[in-house]
Design goal:
Structural class: mainly alpha
Order of helices and strands: HHHHHHHHHH
Number of helices: 10
Shape: elongated
CATH superfamily: MFS general substrate transporter like domains
Strand content: under 5%
Helix content: over 70%
C-alpha cells in the first residue's frame, strides 16, 4: 500500500515565488490594517466635535476615552494571539473585526463619557487582535524573502488608515456631527469582517498542527 506523500508546508511556502494568491492575501490584510488604523484614531479626531456637541468645558475628561483605546489594545493583542493559536488565526481575526464593527456602531448612540470609555475599550480589544493575527497571516503566506516586505505593507496600510479620519472631519462632521466617525468606523469594520470571512484563508500551519483538512483552502 502506497504511503501518503508528506509535504513540508514551511519549505513549500518559503521556496515559492510571489503569486496572485500572495498578492490577494496581502491586499486583503492591508485593507484590514487600514480599517484598524482608522479605528485607532477615532477617539482623538472625534474629540473636538464631541466637546462642541456635549458642551464639555474641560478637555481633560476626554483623556480616559483615549486611554481606553490603548488599554484595549494592550489586553487585546496577547488575548487574540492566544485565541488565534488555539482556534485559528482567521477565526480570531474575524472575531476581532466583528468586535470593531459592533462597538463602533454602539458609539453612535453613546450619551455620556463613561459609555464611550466602555465602547472604546472593547473596540480596542479588537484593534489589538488585528495586530498579531494579520501579521501572522501576512508572514505565513509570504515567501521567506518577502516576509519583511509583507509586514511593511500591512503597517503602511495601518499608518495610512490612521490619517483617514481627517476626511471625515472635513466632509462629514459639519453635516452629520461627531457620530460620523462611528458610522464610518462601523461600516468599514463590517466590510473588513466580510472580506476576512470570505476571502482570507485560514492558516495552513494551524490546520496541519490541529489535524484539520486543507480541503476548501484556496490554492496557493
Amino acid at each position: 500500500m502506497a504511503q501518503p506523500e508528506t509535504i513540508d508546508v514551511t519549505a513549500f511556502i518559503d521556496e515559492r515565488r510571489m503569486t496572485s494568491f500572495n498578492v490577494k492575501v496581502a491586499t486583503l490584510l492591508t485593507l484590514v490594517g487600514l480599517v484598524n488604523g482608522f479605528h485607532i484614531m477615532i477617539a482623538a479626531f472625534s474629540g473636538p466635535a464631541l466637546i462642541k456637541a456635549w458642551g464639555i468645558e474641560n478637555m481633560a475628561v476626554l483623556g480616559p476615552i483615549f486611554s481606553a483605546n490603548l488599554a484595549g489594545i494592550f489586553f487585546g493583542s496577547p488575548g487574540f494571539g492566544y485565541i488565534g493559536d488555539r482556534w485559528g488565526r482567521k477565526s480570531a481575526l474575524v472575531l476581532a473585526c466583528l468586535i470593531l464593527a459592533v462597538f463602533a456602531f454602539a458609539g453612535i448612540w453613546a450619551t455620556s463619557i463613561p459609555q464611550l470609555i466602555v465602547y472604546r475599550f472593547i473596540a480596542g480589544l479588537g484593534m489589538g487582535g488585528v495586530f498579531p493575527l494579520a501579521i501572522a497571516l501576512s508572514t505565513e503566506f509570504a515567501p521567506k524573502k518577502l516576509r519583511a516586505t509583507m509586514v511593511g505593507i500591512f503597517f503602511f496600510g495601518q499608518t495610512f488608515g490612521s490619517g483617514t479620519p481627517v476626511a471625515v472631519s472635513l466632509w462629514l462632521v459639519p453635516t452629520y456631527g461627531w457620530q460620523s466617525f462611528y458610522i464610518v468606523g462601523g461600516i468599514s469594520a463590517t466590510v473588513a469582517l466580510i472580506l476576512t470571512a470570505l476571502w482570507v484563508p485560514e492558516s495552513i500551519k494551524f490546520l496541519v498542527l490541529k489535524g484539520g483538512t486543507l480541503r476548501g483552502q484556496q490554492r496557493c
